[in-house]
């Protein structure tokens, strides 16, 4: 393979630049010409291809976001649009594609290399990059560790104020329909309660969960009354409504003479930004190494996964020359991703069970 391109798509994640850097340096070192696709699949359809050289990526490992830019492209669902993208790559002599992104990005990679329509012979390897950690068959995606650290740092600061004023703070974090960030950051920040979509609780049950933590705190003797609640954005109750219902329930239980204060902080896109952690830089670099090596050796329609999956069907997974990485069939990845999001994945069921078991412990 003489030429390949790198594309980042969907939501940006800290560590994407580290992956771009590693893929570029390895590709050039192996004698290939490397190109960057600007603005994701939208840029690919428009033919926005730029050469990437070592000097241009030398220092981007420490930068958040993506130097190539990103955009969502709904039109990519249509075959004529994908044909146009393939035509641009073929005209530029580009034979391979490294796709860095989440579920939508990897779905786009699956489509553009579909044997039924890929007449140019384009090959592609994907890298999971999503702060939500909602990509199947990889224990961590690029950006997750940084996002967790950002949340925990914010919660530590919020806890200082909560302790000083005996307040309850509800902190909403990103994650879409996946509660991984909420769950892991709740443990790391010593939260008193955590709300995540996989709980599948009713509005009343959600309010009861938080109220129990607040009431327990206010009945403590000689200790701070502060309460920290982590809420995933995918939980189907707004923070404002939760605050309103919580205050009413707590006052009804404790009496209006007991002073309770609830504050809400929505971290929003703060969680997605910032310089990548050391772990994210390593994961991104090693997955990029695996992806490029696989692409140059003729592999296609695979994703480089962090930590080898256990119990994968024969032929769905291949060793990647790195003991903590593997190559997984993209169809299998997307099937497991759908199962994670609809709650039918055994791993998601296990995670939900664990948090149900420790829910009462958090409130102590």
Structural write-up:
It contains 12 helices and 12 strands. The chain is α/β, with parallel strands linked by helices and 364 residues long. The protein has 2 domains: 208 residues, Rossmann fold, CATH 3.40.50.450; 128 residues, 3-Layer(aba) Sandwich (Rossmann fold), CATH 3.40.50.460. The strands form 2 sheets. Strands 3-2-1-4-5-10-12-11 form an 8-stranded mixed beta sheet, sandwiched between helices. It has a 4-stranded parallel beta sheet with strand order 7-8-6-9, sandwiched between helices. The longest helix has 22 residues. It is elongated.
What are the defining features of this structure?
364 residues, alpha/beta, Rossmann fold, 8-stranded mixed beta sheet
Summarize the structure.
With 364 residues, the chain is of the alpha/beta class. The chain is 44% helix and 16% strand.
Second CATH tier, the architecture of the largest domain:
3-Layer(aba) Sandwich
Tell me the strand percentage band. Answer: 15-25%
Task: Give the helix/strand class.
Answer: alpha/beta
Structural Rg: 23 Å
Give the strand order, joined by hyphens, for the main sheet.
Answer: 3-2-1-4-5-10-12-11
In angstroms, what separates the terminal alpha carbons? 59 Å
| Coarse morphology | elongated
Number of helices: 12
CATH C-level category of the largest domain: Alpha Beta
On the 0 to 100 scale, the average pLDDT is 92
Overall number of domains: 2
Largest sheet: 8 strands, mixed
In N-to-C order, the SSE pattern is EHEHEHHEHEHEHEHEHEHEEEHH
Count of distinct strands = 12
């Amino acid at each position: 393979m003489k030429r390949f391109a790198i594309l980042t798509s969907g939501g940006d994640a800290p560590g994407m630049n580290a992956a771009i850097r590693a893929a570029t340096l390895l590709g050039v070192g192996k004698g290939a010409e490397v190109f960057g696709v600007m603005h994701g699949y939208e840029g690919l359809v428009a033919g926005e291809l730029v050469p990437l050289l070592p000097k241009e990526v030398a220092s981007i490992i420490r930068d958040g976001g993506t130097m190539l830019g990103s955009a969502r492209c709904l039109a990519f669902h249509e075959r004529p649009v994908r044909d146009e993208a393939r035509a641009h790559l073929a005209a530029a002599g580009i034979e391979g594609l490294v796709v860095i992104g989440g579920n939508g990005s990897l779905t786009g990679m699956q489509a553009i290399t579909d044997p039924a329509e890929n007449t140019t012979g384009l090959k592609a390897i994907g890298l999971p990059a999503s702060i939500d950690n909602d990509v199947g068959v990889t224990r961590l995606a690029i950006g997750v560790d940084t996002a967790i650290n950002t949340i925990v740092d914010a919660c530590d600061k919020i806890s200082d104020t909560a302790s000083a004023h005996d307040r309850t703070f509800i902190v909403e974090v990103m994650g879409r329909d996946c509660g991984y960030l909420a769950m892991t950051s709740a443990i790391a920040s010593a939260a008193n309660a955590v709300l995540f979509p996989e709980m599948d609780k009713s509005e009343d049950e959600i309010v009861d969960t938080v109220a129990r933590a607040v009431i327990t705190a206010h009945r403590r003797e000689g200790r701070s009354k502060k309460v920290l609640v982590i809420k995933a954005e995918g939980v189907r109750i707004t923070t404002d409504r939760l605050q309103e219902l919580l205050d009413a329930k707590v006052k009804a239980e404790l009496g209006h003479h007991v002073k309770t204060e609830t504050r809400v902080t929505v971290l929003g896109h703060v969680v997605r930004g910032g310089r990548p952690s050391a772990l994210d830089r390593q994961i991104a670099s090693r997955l990029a190494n695996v992806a490029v090596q696989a692409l140059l050796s003729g592999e296609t329609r695979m994703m480089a996964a962090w930590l080898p999956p256990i119990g994968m069907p024969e032929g769905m997974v291949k060793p990647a020359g790195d003991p903590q990485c593997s190559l997984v069939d993209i169809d299998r990845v997307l099937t497991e991703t759908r199962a994670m999001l609809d709650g039918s994945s055994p791993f998601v069921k296990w995670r939900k069970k664990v948090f149900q078991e420790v829910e009462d412990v958090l409130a102590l």
